[in-house]
Design a protein that fits this description.
Layout: H1 2-15, E1 20-26, H2 27-40, E2 46-54, H3 71-83, H4 85-88
Parallel strand pairs: 1-2
Helix pairs in contact: 1-2
Protein name: AB hydrolase-1 domain-containing protein
Organism: Puniceibacterium antarcticum
């Protein structure tokens, strides 16, 4: 994903994009996630990211991925969806 996100960054720089909405489907979702994490916010190039049926990079915090998101966050998403799906979205 790093080469893809670097390519996306080069295009955004060349086009001088700011506050763009980046949308990714399937593997492109992983590219969008990596791009936004690495290049999007510090340069003001990304306002939002949309991942549709995406294959994002590993997000869960594990021993092998210590900077990931703790499982409790995902548990909270599941609980909020169960309690009131419309409100969650």
């Amino acid at each position: 994903m790093d080469p893809y996100s670097a390519d996306a960054s080069a295009v955004a720089e060349f086009l001088n994009l700011s506050n763009a909405v980046h949308i990714g489907h399937a593997t492109g979702g992983g590219e969008v996630a990596r791009y936004v994490a690495q290049f999007g916010q510090p340069r003001g190039r990304a306002a939002k990211a949309v991942l549709m049926s995406a294959v994002p990079p590993m997000m869960l915090k594990t021993d092998a991925n210590p900077e990931g998101t703790p499982m409790e966050v995902f548990d909270g998403f599941r609980e909020a969806l169960t309690v009131n799906r419309a409100q969650f979205f």
